[in-house]
């Protein structure tokens, strides 16, 4: 069975979610952005093959008013670069406004560090990676819900 993957593209990380057969998106993993788009595409290809995915839903970071800002241009440029490297995979965009904010609410606050002190750099990075995965799941669930509404009689 072919699946959909949700992508939350960031400057440092790529959050990834997968659609389960029951129509629910679940956070899958977070990739650290590579130095090249080719390396990003190779890492994605491994996940696509592992998950038997045929389509990527990439979050489009529109501004609050719905306008395309600089982050949208960065996202579109990245997608244009990885598309030829991911043959056989359809890539679509989904409005991702507020997905990271909602993901932060779902994940909750960052845990304190040792002895109640500030969190370590490792703890901060792990927390951000978890938020990125959750944001990808939110983006993908929005797409799945929209498709389900269209399919209903």
What descriptors fit this protein?
153 residues, alpha/beta, Nucleotidyltransferase, domain 5, five-stranded mixed β-sheet, 4 helices, 44% helix, 24% strand, globular
Polypeptide structure, described:
- This protein is α/β, with parallel strands linked by helices.
- It has a single domain (3-151), classed as 2-Layer Sandwich (Nucleotidyltransferase, domain 5), CATH 3.30.420.
- It is 44% helix and 24% strand.
- It is built from four helices and five strands, in the order βββαβαβαα.
- The chain has a five-stranded mixed sheet, sandwiched between helices.
- Helix 3 (99-107) packs across helix 4.
- The two termini are 24 Å apart.
- The mean pLDDT is 89.
